[in-house]
Design a protein that fits this description.
This protein is mainly alpha-helical and about 475 residues long. The chain has 3 domains: about 10-110, Orthogonal Bundle (Fumarase C, Chain B, domain 1); about 115-200 and about 225-360, Fumarase C, Chain A, domain 2, CATH 1.20.200; about 365-460, Fumarase/aspartase (C-terminal domain) (Ribonucleotide Reductase Protein R1, domain 1, Orthogonal Bundle). Helices cover about 60% and strands about 5% of the residues. It has helices spanning about 20-25, 25-30, 35-50, 55-75, 85-100, 110-150, 170-190, 210-220, 230-235, 235-260, 290-315, 325-350, 355-360, 370-380, 385-400, 410-415, 430-435, 445-460; strands at about 155-160, 160-165, 195, 225, 270, 355. The strands form 3 sheets. The chain has a two-stranded antiparallel ribbon with strand order 1-2. Strands 3-4 form a two-stranded parallel ribbon. A two-stranded antiparallel sheet has the order 5-6. β1 (about 155-160) and β2 (about 160-165) form a beta hairpin. The longest helix is centred in the N-terminal third of the chain and has 37 residues, at about 110-150. It is elongated and about 100 Å long. The two termini are about 45 Å apart.
Length: about 475
């Protein structure tokens, strides 16, 4: 194909506007799909041979030529020409340069419309597999730390106010479970990537007796799409990937926000390692948690990518429209960002130092007010009444400017006759933790059960 000549240029007599040419050209983005595009073309050539549209010699020449094209991409020696609008035209142009006339027969019955969505599905399948592996590494790091630091106690927070004592391990596992659910959600998307669109043509189907099922299986798909119009216009899997990516970004952002707060002098619960911190150009004493701040910031940008692409989809009529070319920028950018912050999160969590003494020093007996209410419930007091009585104990402590555990037994009895000497056992943080024996609680037994279940899940997926 001559330099500057378009595959579709036969009915055009006027050159394309330079600005449109620049916007229309997607090769800088979709060259990332070169392996998938070549893989699909090789399998399609074999399907054409089966129905007699290619001779055995022509098919072998095409496959040999495509292998050469892949070698050039692999070694970063592929020479992109100005006529290469996208990865499909680039590969076809180079194939013709290498093998001549047989290359011009490869596109019969096929369209860039069904090529590009096939390429995207193939790329996303392998990319989700790699992403899920990194998510499991992060979950494993959280679980490993939870197991190692299971006995460290710390305040649990609601509304960012001290609420009840919990185990540090229980806190870590709250994110392990969240990310485990994220992993399961994004890997479930693989099922929706199981139907091959190749053979759908531009929108009406393939006029030649291509065995789409056999072609799909050769490419690793388990089925074929059932409607050619739906197939070429479908980008729901891209939207779902962007949504799940944004949710993972949100969860990592929340973890980062917690650890940023916990690493301040005001909290002092953790110290971010020097390998995941930076300094100040002006203030020598500073150690800034830039790894966590970048995770938090990049996590927010993923939500923007998702919203932007959903808006693109809302405005497009059925089948293929050039608007759908925006899928690659959104998906590739989100994937790269997400991979970077998943890996950075794992490194930051793995290397941070836990200041257990600071965690436990932050506990205060007012956090046991709920336990006081539970004490009364066990004495037969209705919970709402017990809650009110515990509140009066808190008020009495405030009025006397003492912690609630410093009130005399007589002070407590003046509030309720149900208080007796046994109430003094309430003022023990370990006892408080250990009362939460129901599944999902912060008792040692429950935390160990969580660890065992998550470790079993990790083992199950170790071969994925």
């Amino acid at each position: 194909m001559a330099e500057g000549k378009k595959l579709w240029g036969g009915r055009f007599s006027t050159p394309i506007d330079p600005l449109l040419e620049k916007l229309n050209r997607s090769i800088d983005l979709d060259k990332r799909l070169y392996k998938e595009d070549i893989q699909g073309s090789k399998m399609y050539a074999e399907s054409l041979k089966v129905i007699g549209m290619l001779t055995d010699y022509e098919c072998k020449q095409i496959i040999k030529g495509l292998d050469k094209v892949k070698e050039e991409w692999d070694s970063d020696k592929f020479d992109i020409k100005s006529s290469d609008e996208d990865i499909h035209t680039a590969n076809e142009r180079r194939l013709k340069e290498l093998i001549g006339e047989p290359a011009t027969k490869l596109h019969v019955g096929r369209s860039r419309n069904d090529q590009v969505i096939t390429d995207m599905k193939l790329w996303m399948r392998s990319s989700i597999t790699e992403l899920s592996s990194n998510l499991r590494s992060l979950v494993k790091t959280l679980v490993t730390r939870a197991d190692r630091e299971i006995d460290v106690k710390m305040p649990g927070y609601t509304h960012l106010q001290r609420a009840q004592p919990v185990r540090w391990s229980h806190y870590l596992l709250s994110y392990a479970w969240t990310l485990k659910n994220d992993h399961d959600s994004i890997t479930n998307l693989l099922d929706k990537l199981g139907a091959s669109p190749l053979g759908s043509g531009a929108l009406a189907g393939n006029p030649f007796p291509i065995d789409r099922e056999a072609l799909a299986h050769k490419l690793g798909f388990n089925s074929v799409t059932k409607n050619s119009m739906q197939a070429v216009g479908d980008r729901d899997f891209c939207a779902e990937f962007l949504f799940y990516s944004s949710m993972i970004g949100i969860h990592l952002s929340r973890l980062a926000e917690d650890l940023i707060l916990y690493s301040t002098k005001e909290f002092g619960f953790v110290t971010i390692s020097e390998s995941h911190s930076t300094g100040s150009s002006l203030m020598p004493q500073k150690r800034n948690p830039d790894s966590l701040e970048l995770i938090r910031g990049i996590g927010g940008s993923l939500t923007g990518q998702c919203c932007g692409f959903l808006t693109v989809l809302k405005g497009t009529p059925s089948t293929y429209n050039k608007d759908l070319q925006c899928d690659k920028e959104a998906v590739f950018s989100s994937y790269d960002k997400l991979m970077s912050i998943v890996q950075l999160s794992e490194g930051t969590v793995r290397t941070l130092h836990l200041n257990s003494e600071k965690c436990e020093a932050a506990l205060s007996t007012d956090m046991l007010a709920t336990d006081l209410a539970y004490y009364l419930v066990r004495k037969g007091v209705a919970f709402r009444d017990a809650h009110g009585l515990a509140g009066k104990v808190v008020a009495a402590a405030e009025q006397n400017a003492v912690d609630i555990d410093k009130l005399e037994l007589e002070d407590l009895k003046s509030i309720s006759c149900f208080f007796d000497a046994g109430v003094m056992k309430i003022w023990n943080y370990e006892n408080s933790l250990e009362q939460y024996q129901a599944t999902g609680g912060t008792s040692r037994k429950c935390v160990l059960e969580q660890i065992m279940e998550l470790e079993a899940w990790l083992r199950h997926h170790s071969g994925v």
